[in-house]
Structure formats: C-alpha cells, structure tokens
Amino acid sequence: MAVWMIHLLRYLVVAGIFYVIYYYWRRSRLASQKIQPRFPKNDDLRREIGYSVATTAIFALVSVALFVTGIRDHNLMYAHWSDYGTAYGLFSFGALVVLHDTYFYWTHRAMHHPRLFKTMHLVHHKSTNPSPWAAYAFHPLEAVVEALIVPIASFILPLHGYTIMAFLVFMMVYNVYGHLGWELFPAHWNRHRLGRWLNTSVNHNQHHQFFRGNYGLYFRFWDEWMDTTRPDYDATFERVTTQSVPQKLDADSASTLQPTH
C-alpha cells in the first residue's frame, strides 16, 4: 500500500498541477493555443483517471517485486551510491531514458498491430483529445508492459534506487507533457538542431488524434529512422506555436477508433 501511494501521489500531483494550470487557471487565456480546440468531456476525464489509478497499482506491484523478491539477487542493482559514484549515476539515468525510449517505441508499435490493438491499446486511444490525466490511462495488460522497463533495465545496467526514483519522476513529467494538449516548446523548436530530435506535445497529440505515426516517447530518433513521423508534423507544430488561431479538427481524425500499423 505504501508503494502504491507513492506511485499514485506522483501521478495525482504532476498531472493535477498541469491540469489546474492549463484547464482552469489559464484556460481562457490559452484556449486559442490549444493543439486541438475542443476540450475533453467529463466522462473522458473520469475514464482517464480511473484507468490511471489502476495503472499505479500495477506499477506498485512490479516495484515491490523488483525490490523485495529474489529478483534483486540476480540483477545489477546496487545499494551504495559510492560503489559507482555520481558520474556513473548520471550516465545510468541518461542510458535508462534512451533504453526506455527504444523499448517504448517498439512495444508501442507492436500494440498497434490489429491483433493486439483492441485488447491492449484501445483503452489509451479512447483519449483522442488527451488531457494530463491520460498519462497512465492504460489497459492493465498495457500497464504491465509499461512497468516492465525497470526490471528489464536492471538486468542490463547497474542501477541505484535513487536513479530509478529520478527516472520515474522524469517519466511522469514528460508523459504528462505529452498528453497536455498544449505545446510548451517555443516556435521553430522542431527545426532546431537538437530540438528536432525531441518528442513534443504536438507530436504525441497527433498520434492520439490520428492513430498512426509518431510512436516515440522522449525522442524522435526511431520515428525518423523507421519513417513513421507524420508528414504534417512540422507544419502542425509551426501552426500551433506561431499562430493564435486554433487548429481545426481534421476530417480523418480517429473518431472511428480503428487500429492501424
């Protein structure tokens, strides 16, 4: 229960802060800059929160299994920070983020296969116009897949508990940003020599709206290498970040909830 409360509070605090700022406090002022002009319905918010709460419980179970059971006797986790030092701690955090991005891209694409989509991934894609609460809105089977990244990584990289905790906070913040509904990066960031490789809220919002393309999490390397970036991504990013006129909902939006590769 204690571990579950930690996961649950992290979700409620991070998603709640962004939701209060953008959907209440600054809603009127920023409405014209929203990626999709419409707002989620209350039923959508309740669904997102309900599934996310269940996801935190699954994450807690996986965390307990990692730290309490005999798994730790066989992986590369270490207890004393001084064993590897701060330089390695920072490196392992970055390596974990890159590893997770790769893991997410390929498992995400796999769940878009028609044989898996309706069973595992449709729940998340019911949020065609996501809010911050959608960050953890997964079917339980998808939640298990998402939770396995840390146990898997612990057999590849020596990891300290502090590194894992920092990673989980970073993952939560970036995940909420991806589902925010507003773009936080500045205009032309998508064309910056570094920024063009980072995933954005516009990028992931398009994935929810249209169901195809833009499968990455933190970075856009795999989407670029695998030619799965939506061709209208750059134009949409420029429009959202440089104009005060809201983006019109495209006629081929994912209202039919059909799975695609």
Automatic annotation (TrEMBL):
<dbReference type="GO" id="GO:0016491">
    <property type="term" value="F:oxidoreductase activity"/>
</dbReference>
<dbReference type="InterPro" id="IPR050307">
    <property type="entry name" value="Sterol_Desaturase_Related"/>
</dbReference>
<feature type="domain" description="Fatty acid hydroxylase">
    <location>
        <begin position="95"/>
        <end position="228"/>
    </location>
</feature>
<protein>
    <submittedName>
        <fullName>Sterol desaturase family protein</fullName>
    </submittedName>
</protein>
<dbReference type="Pfam" id="PF04116">
    <property type="entry name" value="FA_hydroxylase"/>
</dbReference>
<dbReference type="GO" id="GO:0008610">
    <property type="term" value="P:lipid biosynthetic process"/>
</dbReference>
<feature type="transmembrane region" description="Helical">
    <location>
        <begin position="88"/>
        <end position="106"/>
    </location>
</feature>
<dbReference type="GO" id="GO:0016020">
    <property type="term" value="C:membrane"/>
</dbReference>
<dbReference type="InterPro" id="IPR006694">
    <property type="entry name" value="Fatty_acid_hydroxylase"/>
</dbReference>
<feature type="transmembrane region" description="Helical">
    <location>
        <begin position="49"/>
        <end position="68"/>
    </location>
</feature>
<dbReference type="GO" id="GO:0005506">
    <property type="term" value="F:iron ion binding"/>
</dbReference>
<feature type="transmembrane region" description="Helical">
    <location>
        <begin position="6"/>
        <end position="25"/>
    </location>
</feature>
<keyword id="KW-0472">Membrane</keyword>
<keyword id="KW-1133">Transmembrane helix</keyword>
<keyword id="KW-0812">Transmembrane</keyword>
